[in-house]
């Protein structure tokens, strides 16, 4: 779709449209090993509170706030967990990916099963949001922008100079809306550059949450990654329904190139926008990120899991045990995890290396 035809099709914003949550369930969560395993990765674990991260993702999109029934995109190895935890989401549908082909293809699968004028809200299934009411407000603002032809990212309030996230540079304000043009997508920076982003104030974390109309997304995908768009359409056309499940054609989907939605679409479109969202977001990307999301005592310590723990003269220590009693004396900035016959002890500085451990890699 040309920019001219888009401009001609835009009109005064209507009331907030119905938003279709598209929940992406993939990955193995190896940086939270040994609690997160390939057979049951972090979306399906109750890491913060009693609900799993996947259940919390569904709960943030209730019908009474204008959300439609969710569309979940997952692989067959996670299907059992998805369906067991979908009990509270009537009308949900599940698209079963025959193979992992990254986020551009996963989103396109959902898009090809929805009307062109539907607004998709794309959400990872393994994030924690401490202020769901702010998430809902941002979703409605993003959906309103999406109906006007924008492809919208959530610009998550940057509270620290994180080197593990991509960033969005805020551009000019979009008149009459809380949104901004996205001036630049920035790859994960080094620490010095991340600090400069924080000092500048015009940069936000890119948390991988998006809103766009189906037709706009597929037009951009076809323009910038035509093979992905064509092969996904073909795989859906040749696919088969099985109750609430949909199975794309496996042979065709195997030919789909693997690319992220950022590289394939968001960094190429001239209609990229962002909505600020200060919603206490975390990707729970490692053990320290989980510790940051948990309630702590006056010394900064947290204990979770079914096992007992005793901490003496400790600060900023997380103990997560599923059985054996754990005793820690005189340590700071340490994480101890006991899962069955696996024990992990790491400093805060070492958490990024957990996913490279032999036990995490060779599951």
Protein model, in words:
The structure is a single chain. This protein is of the alpha/beta class. It has helices at 3-9, 53-59, 79-84, 102-111, 132-146, 191-200, 214-224, 226-237, 250-253, 261-266, 287-293, 358-361, and strands at 19-25, 71-75, 93-97, 119-124, 128-129, 151-156, 166-173, 180-186, 203-213, 240-242, 245-247, 272-277, 281-282, 302-304, 309-312, 315-321, 326-329, 332-339, 342-347. It has a five-stranded mixed barrel with strand order 6-9-7-8-12. Strands 14-16-18-19 form a four-stranded mixed sheet, covered by helices on one side. Strands 5-13 form a two-stranded antiparallel ribbon. The chain is globular, with a radius of gyration of 21 Å. The termini are far apart. The relative contact order is 0.15.
TL;DR?
The protein has 363 residues and is of the alpha/beta class.
Which descriptors would you attach to this protein?
single chain; 363 residues; alpha/beta; five-stranded mixed barrel; 28% strand
Blueprint (SSEs and pairs):
Elements: H1 3-9, E1 19-25, H2 53-59, E2 71-75, H3 79-84, E3 93-97, H4 102-111, E4 119-124, E5 128-129, H5 132-146, E6 151-156, E7 166-173, E8 180-186, H6 191-200, E9 203-213, H7 214-224, H8 226-237, E10 240-242, E11 245-247, H9 250-253, H10 261-266, E12 272-277, E13 281-282, H11 287-293, E14 302-304, E15 309-312, E16 315-321, E17 326-329, E18 332-339, E19 342-347, H12 358-361
Parallel strand pairs: 1-2, 1-4, 2-3, 3-11, 6-12, 14-16, 15-17, 16-18
Antiparallel strand pairs: 4-9, 5-13, 6-9, 7-8, 7-9, 8-12, 10-11, 18-19
Helix pairs in contact: 4-8, 7-8
